[in-house]
Every structure is written in C-alpha cells, then in structure tokens.
Amino acid sequence: MTVYIETDRLNLRDWKEEDLLPFQQMNANPQVRRYFPDLLSYRKSEVDMKVMDEIIREHQMGLFAIELKETKEWLGFIGLNFVPAESKYPFKELPCYEIGWRLIPEVWGNGLATEGAEAVLTYAQEKGVQEVYAFTAEENSSSRKVMEKIGMKHYDDFEYPNLSKYHPLKRHVRYYKNLAF
Ligand SMILES: CC(C)(COP(=O)(O)OP(=O)(O)OC[C@H]1O[C@@H](n2cnc3c(N)ncnc32)[C@H](O)[C@@H]1OP(=O)(O)O)[C@@H](O)C(=O)NCCC(=O)NCCS
C-alpha cells in the first residue's frame, strides 16, 4: 500500500481489496447518489475501483482511496480524474483535470472532503497541474460548498449529456481554479 498524500486526519492512498465492499455499498446508497442519475451496481463499482487503482499506480495521481489516519477506516475517495478530449462532456477545454469526492454519509459535515481536496490541489500543483475543474448538479449544495471552500470559482453552467431535458439533474455547474499562480 502506498500513501500519496497525508493530511491532519486523512491518508490518501491506493486501493485495497477490503475497500471493495464499502465502496460498492456507498455507490448503491440512494443518499450518496442523490445528485447522480443512477445507483451503481456492485459489478460496475468493482470495475471502477480496479481502474482507479491502476491509474494511481501508473500516474501517482487519480481518485485516491481515503482512510481515517487514526483508525484506518475507509471513508471514500477524493482526487483528480483526467477527462479525455473524447469525453461526453460539452466543453471546449478538453482534455482537463476534474477534482472529485465521494464520502460515506456517516462522516459528512466534518470538513473531511474540504481537508482532503485542499491537499489534492497542493499535490497537483507540485506535479505541475495548472488548471482544475469540478462539476456537479446545480442543486448539490454541499459539493458546491466544498468547491468554494477550496477556492474554486463558479465558471459556467451546462446540461449534463445523455439525460432528458426534463430530468431534474439536467442542470449542472462547473467550477474552476487556476493553480499556476
Ligand atoms: C459532497 C461531499 C463529499 C461533502 O463531504 P463533507 O465531508 O461533508 O464536506 P465538508 O464537511 O468538507 O463540507 C461540506 C459543506 O457543505 C455544507 N452543507 C452540507 N449540506 C448542505 C446543504 N444542504 N446546503 C448547503 N450547504 C451544505 C456543510 O455545512 C459544509 O460547509 P461548512 O464547513 O461551511 O459548514 C459529501 O456530501 C458526499 O460524499 N456526497 C455524495 C457524493 C457527491 O455528491 N459527491 C460530489 C459529486 S460532484
């Protein structure tokens, strides 16, 4: 196991086999997926975890598993996702890096996402990443709050691809931070 980033309370590390079940449960939880169009099947989560781990091992960057330093309890993930030019998103600024987070509900509201995300931005800056975006559903206030607390600015709004124009999650917001300064 490799810890890539350490904060006061968190280790951001590569993924372990024991993370799989709590990751699957988190992704199948309607409370966690409230601002996503769907729940994830256990099979999809298994594939996603493998891919995230491979990317971290290859690039020392990606969506890191996070654990509480004190107890080593797995809490979710925080990190940077590389969005390729051929992605589904309707942006002209592609490829790009997207910062993202997803934590188990038991720990929400304690500043952990903000703490981990700030550390990811510092780590990314040290690695030469110059620009970072974040996307979420317009109504996802807690995620938008994290974006604002780490110094990101509301950049624009967009319609989430492959959803009906009447879907309640159609409206999305994009935030931006320049790390070059
Ligand atoms: C978004 C998420 C990662 C935040 O994690 P967290 O550890 O609770 O975040 P933090 O405690 O660092 O900050 C959350 C902030 O949002 C605020 N908040 C929470 N619910 C809110 C709401 N309904 N309206 C407005 N603000 C809200 C909190 O008060 C806190 O701000 P504060 O520190 O100024 O009080 C977590 O809620 C989550 O995993 N959600 C499900 C997955 C998800 O939506 N991911 C993002 C997709 S882009």
Notes on the protein architecture:
The chain is α+β, with helices and mostly antiparallel strands. The protein has one domain (about 5-180): 3-Layer(aba) Sandwich (Aminopeptidase). About 30% of the residues lie in helices and about 30% in strands. The chain is built from four helices and eight strands, in the order E-E-H-H-E-E-E-H-E-H-E-E. It has helices at about 20-25, 40-60, 110-125, 140-150, and strands at about 5, 10-15, 65-70, 75-85, 95-105, 130-135, 155-160, 170-180. The chain has a five-stranded antiparallel beta sheet, with helices on both faces. Strands 6-8-7 form a three-stranded antiparallel beta sheet, with helices on one face. Strand 3 and strand 4 form a beta hairpin. The chain is globular. The model has no long low-confidence stretch (mean pLDDT about 95).
Task: Produce a short descriptive summary.
This is GNAT family N-acetyltransferase. By secondary structure, the protein is α+β, with helices and mostly antiparallel strands.
Give a quick set of tags describing it.
single chain, 181 residues, alpha+beta, Aminopeptidase, 30% strand, globular, binds coenzyme A
How is the secondary structure organized here?
Blueprint lengths: L2 E4 L3 E4 L6 H8 L14 H18 L3 E6 L5 E10 L12 E8 L8 H15 L4 E7 L3 H9 L3 E7 L11 E8 L3
Antiparallel strand pairs: 1-2, 2-3, 3-4, 4-5, 6-8, 7-8
Helix pairs in contact: 1-2
Shape: globular
CATH topology: Aminopeptidase
Query: What is the CA-based Rg, rounded?
Result: 16 Å
**Secondary-structure arrangement, i.e. CATH architecture:** 3-Layer(aba) Sandwich
Domain N-acetyltransferase: 10-180
Protein name: GNAT family N-acetyltransferase
Organism: Staphylococcus marylandisciuri
InterPro entries: Acyl_CoA_acyltransferase, GNAT_dom, N-acetyltransferase
